[in-house]
Structure formats: C-alpha cells, structure tokens
From TrEMBL, chains A, B:
PROSITE patterns: ROK. Pfam families: ROK (PF00480). The lineage of its organism: Bacteria, Pseudomonadati, Gemmatimonadota, Gemmatimonadia, Candidatus Palauibacterales. Transmembrane segments: none annotated. This is ROK family protein. SUPFAM superfamilies: Actin-like ATPase domain.
Length: 331, 331
C-alpha cells in the first residue's frame, strides 16, 4: 500500500479500565486530539466498540478541523488490545479482563470507521511505541513491562517487534517466579502478576494489616478493604514504613522477574510503565538492587532500566507504529 | 571473506567435562573425524588449549587424507565455549565450570592452528546447530536447552541466533523459578539449574533417601553419596518408584522454566539435549503436562517439545554454523 496523501494515523489503546485514542503524525510526534474514556466492559462488547468508534471519529474530526485536512489525510487505525489475539484475522482470541472470546475487533472498527485497521497486543504496542518515539528511541533491543490491572510485556529485537509463533510472545506477567507461591487469576501459582500487579499489591497490603501493624493505609483508604495500589504509593510518599515495606517487596518480586528477562533476552533497555512507577526511586532502587543480585553481570551492566517517557501515550503511539509496520513494511 | 576453495569447517565444542571436535562439510552434513576427549580443566588452561589444538590438527589430517584434500580445503574453526564471552574479541569473560577469566581462547587456537576462528557460547552453538541441521531445520524460531553439569540455552529467532546486547542472551539456567528456593552455585536462590542440572538431580535424590525410602539407587551407585543423575535414569528404567518420583519432580521444575520461556518467546520448537533426555517419556510426559498447566494455551499449542536429533554433535555442527554466519554473513 502506498502512503498517498496520508498525513495522520489514529492510535487506539484499549485497556481493562480505560480506552485511549489519539492521532499521530505520520512520521511520529506527540499525539493530537487525545481522549481517554472508561472502558466500562460490563456494558458489553458492542458498547465498547461503539465507544471506540465514536472516540476515533471525534478525534479525526478534531484534527481535520484544526489542520484543515480532508478525509484522505488519515491513513488508518492502529489498535492495541489485551490478548491473546490473532493479528492476521484481527481477532481477539480471549481476554480475561474484557471477557471477549474470538471477537473480530479489528474489522468491527474498520467497517464502522471506514479506514484500514490493524490489531496488535496492547503491551506489544506500548513497547514498540517506546522504541519508536520514547525511552528506547536510541537503542535496538527493548523489553517493555506494563504494570496495571495485569502485567503485560513486549519485546523489540533489533528494531523488530517480536510476535513469536502464535502472536503470544512477551507474556511476562505469567512468568512463574515462585512455583508453589501465591495463586494467580490465571489459575496457576506464583506468577509475577500475582505479586506485582495493582490488585496484587493491594491484596498483599491488606493481608499484612491483619497483623495490626501501624500504618496510614486504612485512614487514607477510608477502610482497609478499600486499599488500592494507589493508596500504597500515596502512603509511601508520605513516609509510611509499612507501605514502604509493601512496595519494597513488590520491587523485589519484580526484580526477580526482570532479572529472568535480562538473563534470557539481554536487552539494551527495560522500560517500565504503569501506576507503580509514580513511586520513583522508592521502587527503582530496590528493584535495581534485586536485579544486580540475580542477573548475570555482563547482562545487567548492559541494560538500562527506566520508566516510560511517553506520559501514558505509549500505547497510542505504538499502535500507530504497528499499523505503519504492517501496512508499509517499516515504521 | 570469500569462500575460495574451502570445502570443510572445523567445529569445536568445549564443555566442563568433554571436548568434542569434528569436521563439517561446508554445506552441512554429518561431522567427520569426530573425537571426544576429557577436558581435565584442573590441569590448567594451557593444557586444555593444547589438547583442543591437537584434536583439531588430528581431525584435519584425518579428513585431508581420507578425502585427498589440501590445506586450503579447510576454511576455519568455529568454537563453542561456556560463557559469558565477548564474540568480538574472542575472549571468555568468565566461566565458573572452567575457571577461566578474560581468556583469549579464540586467538590462542587460531594462532596455534593457523586458520581463522570464531567464538560463541556453547549452548548458543548447539541451538544454532539444531536449527541448521537438526530438530529445528524446518522452523524459524527455536529455543534450545542443554541439561548437563549446568543448564544452558540458546535462542534462534526467525533463523537468526539472538545474542543480545552483550552476548549474554539465552542464560536459561539461572532463571529464578522459586525466589526463596534451593541455593544455586551462582550464589542465588531458586535458579532452574539448582533443580534440574545433573548435580542438582543427584543432590535431590540423595537428600530424599535420608528418609530411608526403599530404592534401588544406593545399590546401583555402590553407596548413596555416589549417586549421580545417570544412576537416577538407570533406576527409572528399572522401574524404581523413588527414582521415578525424583525424575518426575525434575520434569515439573523444568516444566516451570520452559513454560516461562514459551510465554516469553513463543517459539515454534523447544529442543532439549543432555543426559536426562535418555529417560524418554518418563521425562517428556510429566514435562509436557506441567507446561500445559502453566503456559498460555495459544503459545503452548504452537510449540513442539523434542529431544535433540543430532546425537551429541549439535555443538560441533552449531559452532560451524556460527563460523559461517560470522565469516560469510549467512549459514
């Protein structure tokens, strides 16, 4: 497909909590007309698709007006969604957080908007975005880790997003770090996600409070059962020793998983995104210490570990990069 | 470098226990003049290098005579060695099993033999060998796992050996599977190698016998402390229930590690090599069951898990593949 007169590509980042849409200049740059809305997945798949389509149409209209651009200035839509999924058919095979099974997400959006579209895993897209425009723009090999309701990952090797044999590569959240450890939502025991996802951080914090340790957490949350990962970060910033311990444990668990990644992939860069990065050095210092302890020295020394530099838009930018790569063969 | 008249390349596979050398036809095929000798690393680095050089010279002489070939028929030498190592300088940075540090292995061999040489990690080479000529010859993405005194790994992605940022990729043996588990030789806790290497299998077998369970193992080994992984496989074949349990546990630990690999890399094929594969279905059945339990379904279904098909010569063949790739740009 030739570029023709296209100046813009729409990026869509569908998550379990929020949908983000933005319009990215063809050659990269800050997304315009960015909008964020709740996914409200409990209202059903049709509702979510209609909402995504409306957000895309509104964003296109906004950019078209502001830039005086015609319809032919928009090349298409890159979509990132939780997986596993099939890129070729544009189908989401299954996604626990959204409840979809064999759902033809790409074509529903493409047909409703009337523009070509591509589908890729959301964490893959975010990592590709970091490589194209963000923290990884000067290196070849980047592993991205997204910490949220779940833990996702993406792997860019020598500038190419690694999809694997069945588009399932980079599922870092379900790496076992303790084979007889905490039960994970996936049914297994000891997955990284069972320790370091947002809900897991909250669950560990609540469990520890049963021993009646002094902490700001119950007060900040209103009641102990309303504690979230955000409450933990807030309490850490306010100097709460118990919350700091919970975060420190999180950093250690995460360090075990990331040391495994460093030993296996030996990347130039690990980019970490998600709410937990707000804790800054409270997270990164014990995290780096655990990695130094567990990873091979030559691999650990070659790898920088940084937070995302794209301010929550890595998924949008990366979905656009995926669209470019699939449509034109390069980014 | 052009191929000129070269018909043969020498492959060298240096391990903690044995050195293997063979001569491989330029376009692939069964290695000729294969020889295996003990490494005897305790006799020092010079002794080992002299032994390797003598083995190479003897192998070249044997093939030259048998094929009526002149010196210019031999293009060079591919060397596989435990790492970490630096391919560019041909230096072994450190290797716990051999005790070498910053050791210019490649150039010592090159200068003594008088042929160009390349150096790569032994498990990388073995995996590349499987991809070129062995179990992986029909697929794009192969992960190899070598189970011996240590556990090594190699990753071939879309036909390219993945070295990573500092030639350290594929170190699967020091993946943490139990962050507070068994102590590993590397100083950490819960590495895959601490459960499923040969010495770890023997150590777990000996520990369990302290509870005085009935087993053929002490009799087969002479005394309990002489039990090795080989003794365990022999006892399994003779139907010993305790040894079968030890092997079954090994398969489960290995399954945890390989499920992690499948979730991260999503390969077409996992090739397992080393003594433990002699246990056949006693190993592979519980191994596949654990992987099915822990890996993403779409990733697990895409991945065949097989023993090496190169009968102990994957390291030789793969070292030759590495030489070809580095010298001519392709295999």
């Amino acid at each position: 497909m030739s570029r023709s007169k296209a100046d813009w590509i729409v990026g869509v980042d569908i998550g379990g909590t929020n949908i983000k849409v933005g319009v990215v200049p063809f050659d990269g740059g800050t997304p315009l007309a960015v909008r964020v809305e709740r996914t409200e997945v409990q209202r059903g798949a049709k509702f979510v698709v209609d909402r995504v389509v409306k957000m895309i149409q509104d964003a296109i209209e906004e950019v078209a007006k502001a830039e005086g651009a015609g319809t032919d200035a928009f090349a298409g839509i890159g979509i990132g969604s939780p997986g596993p999924l099939d890129r070729r058919t544009g189908t989401v095979i299954s996604t626990p957080n959204l409840g979809w099974r064999n759902f033809p997400l790409r074509d529903l959006i493409r047909n409703a908007v009337g523009l070509p579209a591509t589908l890729d895993n959301d964490a893959n897209a975010a990592t590709y975005g970091e490589w194209w425009q963000g923290a990884g723009r000067d290196v070849d090999t980047v592993v991205g880790v997204t910490l949220g309701t779940g833990i996702g990952g993406g792997i860019v090797l020598n500038g190419v997003l690694h999809h694997g044999a069945s588009d399932a590569a980079g599922e870092l959240g379900h790496m076992t770090i303790d084979s007889t450890g905490r039960k994970c939502n996936c049914g297994n025991y000891g997955c990284l996600e069972a320790y370091a996802s947002g809900p897991a951080i909250a669950a560990r914090a609540i469990e520890g409070l049963e021993a009646e340790v002094p902490s700001l957490l119950p007060e900040l949350a209103g009641d102990p059962n309303s504690i979230t990962a955000e409450t933990v970060y807030d309490a850490v910033v306010q100097g709460d020793p118990y919350a700091t311990e919970v975060l420190h444990d999180t950093a250690k668990f995460l360090g075990v998983g990331l040391a495994n990644i460093i030993n296996i992939i030996n990347p130039d860069l690990l980019v970490i995104s998600g709410g937990v990065t707000k804790a800054g050095d409270h997270l990164f210092e014990p995290l780096r210490a655990e990695i130094r302890k567990r990873a091979f020295r030559v691999a650990e020394q070659a790898c920088k570990i940084v937070p995302s530099s794209l301010n929550g838009t890595a998924g949008i930018i990366g979905a656009v990069a995926c669209f470019k790569k699939e449509t034109y063969g390069s980014v």
